[in-house]
UniProtKB/TrEMBL annotation:
InterPro entries membership: Amidohydro_3, Metal-dep_hydrolase_composite, Metal_Hydrolase
SUPFAM superfamilies noted in UniProt: Composite domain of metallo-dependent hydrolases, Metallo-dependent hydrolases
Protein name, entry field: Amidohydrolase
Domain of life: Bacteria
Species: Microbacterium murale
Start and end residues of each Amidohydrolase domain: 43-485
Length: 490
């Protein structure tokens, strides 16, 4: 199988013709060099001078959560507890479908609410059906007694369930097998329409079995690296899986890394920090956030994975969590990935490069969380979401969305990383901007060179000639995965 792209402009340079054979880039020659009779093989597509580059990767998604979000009440625009409950109430009254008999919502952020969530308020607003409202960062759920009884959990006066207990029940109620394959195909195709060729899947699920079945069922628009969580680690070791192993017959899905969550999140004030959160009694056990997985257990898990040929990706948001995780990787002599790295001590930036660790970051989170960071990390935000500091210290960056926490759209991530602003707001800590070439490289896994996979994106504008909003809304003319179109308008 062969395909020739005529008149493409790699990174906005001189136009070239690109020959693709068997899923790989076979030739890149000056435009017009292949115009002689009989010199062009297979299908030809006139790219008409459009910009072309390597296909985009999202290095952190929760794909099932991303799919499910579409069926939940949208709470992302709410600004208070009362606003959340009024939105959920209106949805119920207007006939919003129940999921397994429950009203489900997603997207509230309570980090700056003047009036906190309470069990009494949610009971008063929606007493007649079980209701579960999921926070925008996925780290807590607000529910009424009927929902708690359904899930078999106890609630305190807040009605909130946070971190470990919440994550456990959240995963248990997703019922992934009840989602039709068409929903996954639609979500994968939508990602391809934004130039995405691959995602790193961090869903807490049997990703080996589930993604093999999805590919067999026609979800073939993306490459996938599927992680494993600690509760399934022994099973995958017993089954002989190692990082990088192909999972499906088409070669689209590979076994990924062990995912360990060491602390919580900023919005729930559970990110593990060196300094107390404002208003917290320093002697309170949660004054500085929480250690979700003890460091001794993290060390055991990483050693077990390393010895079985499984690499690691560790969630660390607070600066204490990042310091402890860096120490653990150093002690074990392991390379790996630190997910999020939202608050980092100045002395720790250089350690990412020294230890060969990747910083997998989500730039749009900085835009979502700038106000809550200014409040809860007051005086420390010069080193919050500090992508510029990481880059200058030599760390390898990878960009992602944490979908559904932010949109599964690499151009939004690139725009946030390079501009540190959106809408009418000024740039937040502009010293932490990264150059466009760095953001693009952090969003790809291949290069535009002979012998590389023909995973490509063709855009309607030159990113280097685009302003902030044009980057975020970049038109994608075509996406190719292994030389086949997964999206095209040309």
């Amino acid at each position: 199988m062969s395909l020739t792209l005529l008149g493409a402009r790699p990174f906005g340079g001189d136009p070239v013709d690109i020959v693709i054979r068997d899923g790989l880039i076979a030739e890149i020659v000056p435009a017009g060099s292949l115009s002689g009779e009989g010199t062009v093989e297979g299908e030809t597509v006139d790219v008409s001078g459009r910009w072309i580059g390597p296909g985009m990767w999202d290095s952190h998604v929760h794909f099932t959560q991303h799919v499910i979000r579409r069926s939940r009440v949208d709470l992302t625009g709410t600004t208070s507890a009362a606003d959340v409950l009024a939105t959920a109430r209106r949805a119920l009254d207007s006939g919003h479908p129940l999921l397994n008999g429950m009203l489900m919502g997603y997207g509230f952020r309570d980090g700056l609410w003047e009036e906190p969530a309470s069990l009494a308020a949610i009971e008063a607003a929606i007493p007649e059906v079980p209701v579960i409202l999921v926070s925008g960062d996925l780290h807590c759920g607000w529910m009424n007694r009927a929902a708690a009884a359904r899930l078999g959990v106890d609630l305190d006066e807040t009605g909130l369930l946070r971190e470990g207990p919440w994550i456990e029940v959240h995963h248990s109620m997703d019922q992934t097998d009840a989602l039709p394959l068409s929903a996954y195909r639609e979500a994968a195709d939508a990602a391809a329409s934004r130039g995405v060729v691959g995602v790193v899947e961090f869903e807490s699920a049997d990703n080996v079995t589930e993604w093999r079945a999805r590919v067999d069922g026609g979800v073939t628009s993306l490459r996938v690296e599927g992680a494993v969580w600690p509760d399934r680690l022994e099973k995958v070791i017993a089954d002989g899986w190692r990082t990088g192993d192909p999972i499906d017959d088409q070669g689209l899905v590979r076994f990924g890394r062990l995912k360990v969550v060491v602390d919580g999140s900023l919005n729930t004030r559970t990110a593990w920090c060196w300094d107390p959160y404002p208003g917290m009694d320093p002697s309170h056990p949660l004054a500085c956030g929480m250690e979700s997985v003890p460091i001794s257990e993290l060390r055991r898990l990483l050693e077990r994975a390393r010895d079985a040929g499984i690499d690691a990706a560790v969630h660390a948001i607070g600066d204490r969590a990042n310091s402890e995780v860096l120490d653990t990787f150093a002690e074990l002599g392991m390379r790996g990935v630190i997910e999020h790295a939202q608050l980092v001590r100045e002395d720790d930036f250089a350690r990412f490069a020294e230890l060969g660790l990747v910083a997998s970051v989500q730039p749009e989170h900085a835009m979502d969380d700038r106000d809550v960071a200014d409040h809860h990390w007051a005086g420390r935000t010069d080193r919050a979401f500090a992508f510029g500091s990481m880059h200058r210290a030599g760390a390898e960056l990878r960009l992602g969305s944490d979908a559904p926490v932010a949109p599964l759209d690499p151009w939004i991530s690139i725009g946030a990383a390079t501009a540190r602003s959106r809408g009418e707001r000024e740039a937040w800590h502009p010293e932490q901007q990264v150059p466009l070439d760095v953001a693009l490289a952090a969003s790809t896994r291949s290069t535009l060179a002979v012998g590389q996979p023909a995973d490509l994106v063709i855009t309607g504008r030159d990113p280097y000639a685009s302003d902030r909003d044009e980057l975020r809304d970049m038109p994608v003319a075509a996406t190719l995965l292994g030389g086949r179109f997964t999206w095209r308008t040309i």
